[in-house]
Amino acid sequence: MLSWLGGAGLLAVGAARAARAADPAQDHALAVVEPPRPAPAFSLQDINGKTHRLADYRGKVVLVNFWATWCPPCRQEMPSIERLYLAMKGRPFEVLALDQGETLNNVFAYMGQLNPSPTFPVLLDQHSEAAHAFGVMGIPTTYLVDKNGMIVRQAVGGRDYDSPAIRQVIEALMR
Prior knowledge:
It comes from Thiomonas bhubaneswarensis. The protein is of the alpha/beta class and 175 residues long. The chain has helices at residues 2-22, 72-87, 104-113, 129-134, 164-174, and strands at residues 31-38, 43-45, 51-53, 61-67, 93-100, 122-125, 141-145, 150-156. The strands form two sheets. Strands 1-8-7-4-5-6 form a six-stranded mixed sheet. The termini are far apart. The relative contact order is 0.22.
């Protein structure tokens, strides 16, 4: 019975996401986190072996995206995250994409298939420890962390991250 309810819940979430995806106004929504809460610390390696700590980005607005290669909405939003990242290059902004539970080989192979391949850091959260610390319930889930390390916005489900509405939110946070 419990597994049936879990499956029904997943179907309901999927239907709600599909309905939201059909409404373009929702694609730009980043929910306000009120009150803002401290972003959990993490230290993870990227696909090139470099270690990234969230604390190293204090003073910048950071888009923290939890995703996986097998997740269709994650794959769909990746190009918009890259466009946003390139548009904000040289500004106090960073993107950290945390892959959930996959091997380096799987993630590296997927990155090689993308054209263009993302230039932002892609980190490996192989045991989903950072995801658990953030309270991620499904992917994609994205958080905006302000310059003081506080989570101020969040989104569950795919988004168009280089939309004017989302850029405006990020611009305001960088001031």
